[in-house]
Task: structure prediction
Amino acid sequence: MPREISAGGVLVRRGAGGWELAVIEPQRDSSGGAGSGKQRPRTVLALPKGLLDPGENPEQTALREVREETGISGTLIAKLTDIKYVYVRTWSDKQRVFKVVSFYLLRGQSGTINDISPAMRTEVRRALWIPLEEAERKLAYRGEREVVRLARKYLESNPQETN
Result:
């Protein structure tokens, strides 16, 4: 089984109502699916992440992917965890792939949310800020919801590092 190594970020900033999280809505396959066609597709929200480029370490990849997919540059606070899963490449060879994604907690530094390149629009429909407290309900993937839980615990336990 092929393996993929990726990294991503839980990018946060302080908003008027508390912590906010940058999320992406990935572009989705428009081929449709089973069903009557009358159901509205559910909006999928995810954390920014991507494959390591040659010569990159996971921290560099997390910072790059967050900047490319959200428009925001961040600074590294801490590594949160690695999530591991198997998926099927639906867009090419239908092969099962074992994937490991290292996630890092990042603090937003500069940039404008959703200010991403036209080339990145093939992957990302939009990027937006959501309240961190709502993220566990809004993110589509179970592993990413767990990563956000870890980020919230870190922020609560280490206020001196995030002021």
Observations:
- The beta strands are 3-15, 18-26, 49-51, 72-88, 96-111, 124-131.
- The CA atoms of residues 24 and 127 lie 4 Å apart.
- The domain at 15-28+43-158 is CATH 3.90.79.10 (Nucleoside Triphosphate Pyrophosphohydrolase).
